[in-house]
Design a protein that fits this description.
The structure holds 2 protein chains of 2 kinds. Chain A is mainly alpha-helical. Helices cover about 75% and strands about 0% of the residues of chain A. Chain A is built from 20 helices and no strands. The longest helix of chain A has about 30 residues. The model of chain B has no long low-confidence stretch (mean pLDDT about 90). Classes of the chains: A mainly alpha, B mainly alpha.
């Protein structure tokens, strides 16, 4: 009877029950109907123990770092630095849009934060320079999804925790795919520049101006260096590194850049804590859900039905991309990873796919899912920032979405893109 | 109808005030978590003496952060849900579906409160934490190890606050079903929260 919990959960999900409740109510109802009331107590304990974790603490710290940096107004500095670097290319401000997203990704790790912080600055700038507003909104949304791919990444921490993988290995594995995605978007802009009649490039910044822009942006841009340097050198655990990043953001905002006011701190803490509480509860219920899934032999049943289609890893990886694309239309990245990760990952690891490579495939798929209608969180955020209708943003995103889907296929079938860096640094074994 | 509206808005006011207080404490917990972990790093590297308690203390604070803040997120519509199908239903059917789901949520949370209470007061809660001490005068040393129930109580508080919010939202959905939506007080903002 317990095997019915996944269909029941899906019914609740599509009827609009919040996922955190659905993941508990569906198995609890079946346990109650089965007379296993003692197991409902275990479900409760699983949720509590699922949250009682030191590695999970990195999530509130990264949320806080992003909030602190946003409140300190780093976005303008990053846009200024990106403009000095690539503003002279054809479609300059569109290129700047992508590069600042790549830089911001190293600080915040959230696609929605990227759109809110950078979109509100760069979209009006692009419009003023003659770029069509839908195009500006489209490239803002498309580049924002690099946020959770380049470390730090909230959804990678969730994946690592739920699946028992190394946070450092996942962070390392995300760097090259994130940069690769950004470069592919920049190339697309270059090819689109003529057909879209994008404005001519601005004058190349002098070394002096570029140096000044770099000096202004250097403090926030040191965050990923501090973070990854600390983790990889073994000085900090990922959780400690996240706390150090939060402390660093607080320090530079208040004392170095002096753009963060003490009066902003309670609001910053409150917003970060509020978002963290949702993610923590989601992860806690996911751990209970994962336990029930294992008890009900759901991964094995799913594996049997998938392997009946094919046992070729290449075919199965293609199918998982299709599945995640469809799921991404309806679910955000975090919940998708929490629900499908424990079900899909064991199957792919069993057929020989490297767990870190599969994690990257899942994370990139899920982040691109933030751009797919009807439930694309980044589309909604971009619509709110730009003032354009969601349908307009969706249409504008399409050319970039096609490119990102091609990037996913390349990342899926060329594991070296994601695995070389963690292999070189000893986090993943060479084959 | 008037009685329902008075009940709805009265509970809304109580929830609003309690959750505002909880948000302050939750925000303070996050600030303290950063301080505690930075202390851990400082003592380990600068003073060469690793402390035993920061890891458990920060977990304690994180559990309370979650316990105190999650209900605010629920009340403001911050929990991730797919409301597409309900939005496409006729308005009354959609509201009826929401009410039924909220009722189911209330039952589950009520059971969770019961379980939480027995967990906190049960034998598991009497065990001591590994490294958290309380300054009290009842023992010879003046210090007492904190019982685990103090950490477990965060979950009990969480489900209790969620239950209070679920009851409020259920009453609001009933009032809306009965056509009294205009008489309902406004819940501050609707936000979607997550790690994305």
């Amino acid at each position: 009877m317990l095997s019915l919990f996944v269909p029941l959960f899906l019914v609740f999900l599509f009827l609009g029950l919040p996922i955190v409740f659905g993941m508990v109510i569906a198995p609890a109802l079946l346990l109650w109907a089965n007379g296993d009331t003692r197991d409902i107590v275990l479900l409760y304990r699983n949720v509590y123990e699922g949250m009682n974790s030191f590695p999970l603490m990195a999530i509130p710290f990264f949320m806080l770092t992003g909030e602190l940096m946003n409140s300190a107004g780093i976005s303008r500095r990053i846009v200024g630095f990106a403009a000095a670097m690539v503003g002279h290319f054809r479609g300059g401000l569109a290129q700047v849009n992508v590069v600042d997203s790549m830089m911001f990704a190293g600080i915040s790790g959230s696609a929605v934060a990227d759109v809110s912080a950078l979109g509100s600055i760069i979209i009006p700038q692009m419009e003023a320079k003659g770029y069509p507003k839908p195009f500006a909104a489209g490239i803002t949304a498309a580049s924002a999804i690099i946020g959770p791919i380049i470390p730090p990444s909230g959804i990678m921490i969730i994946y690592a925790y739920v699946m028992g993988e190394s946070v450092a290995a996942l962070f390392l594995a995300g760097i090259v795919p994130g940069i690769f995605m950004g470069l592919c978007l920049m190339l697309t802009i270059r090819f689109m520049a003529d057909s879209y009649g994008l404005p001519a490039a601005q004058q190349k910044a002098s070394w002096r101006d570029a140096g000044r822009a770099g000096a202004e942006a250097i403090w926030p841009l040191m965050t990923p260096v501090l973070l990854m340097g600390g983790i990889l050198s073994g000085v900090f655990t990922p959780t400690e590194a996240a706390a150090v990043a939060a402390g660093y953001s607080f320090f530079i905002g208040l004392f170095v850049m002096r753009t963060l006011k003490v009066s902003q701190i309670p609001g910053v803490l409150s917003r970060a804590a509020l978002t963290s509480s949702v993610v923590l509860l989601l992860v806690g219920t996911a751990m209970a859900f994962k336990t029930v899934a294992a008890l009900a032999h759901t991964p094995e049943m799913l594996a049997d039905s998938i392997l009946a289609v094919s046992d070729n890893p290449l075919v199965l990886l293609f199918l998982v991309n299709v599945l995640l694309f469809v799921v991404g239309m309806f679910l955000d990245a975090g919940p998708t990873i929490i629900i499908l990760g424990p079900i899909l990952a064991p199957l792919f690891v069993a057929i020989g796919v490297d767990p870190v490579h599969f994690a990257v495939v899942m994370v990139v798929n899920c982040t691109v899912g933030l751009l797919t209608p009807p439930m694309g969180l980044v589309l909604f955020a971009t619509s709110a920032v730009s003032g354009l209708r969601v349908e307009t943003v969706t249409r504008a995103v399409m050319p970039f979405l096609i490119v990102e889907m091609l990037v996913i296929l390349v990342l899926t079938y060329v594991p070296a893109i994601s695995l070389t860096l963690p292999r070189l640094l000893g986090y993943v074994a060479w084959p | 109808m008037t009685a329902l509206l008075v009940l709805c808005n009265g509970l809304g006011q109580i929830n609003g005030a309690v959750l505002a207080f909880c948000r302050w404490i939750g925000a303070a917990c996050l600030g303290l978590m950063v301080v505690v972990i930075l202390m851990q790093v400082f003592f380990r590297y600068a003073l060469g003496s690793a402390l035993a308690w920061p890891e458990e203390a920060s977990r304690f604070l994180m559990l309370w952060l979650m316990g105190l803040m999650a209900a605010t997120a629920f009340r403001r519509g911050g929990f991730v849900a797919i409301d597409m199908m309900v939005a496409k239903m006729p308005a009354r059917l959609g509201m009826l579906t929401t009410s039924v789901l909220l009722l189911l949520t209330i039952i589950t949370l009520a059971v969770s409160v019961q379980i939480g209470l027995s967990e906190v007061t049960g034998i598991g809660g009497q065990f001591e934490t590994d490294s958290l001490w309380l300054p009290v005068m009842v023992t010879e040393s003046g210090w007492l190890k904190m019982p685990k129930s103090w950490m477990m109580a965060s979950m009990l508080v969480c489900v209790t606050l969620l239950l209070a919010v679920a009851v409020e939202l259920f009453l609001r959905s009933l009032a809306t079903l009965l056509g009294a939506r205009d008489g309902l007080s406004v819940i501050p903002e609707t936000i979607t929260l997550g790690s994305e």
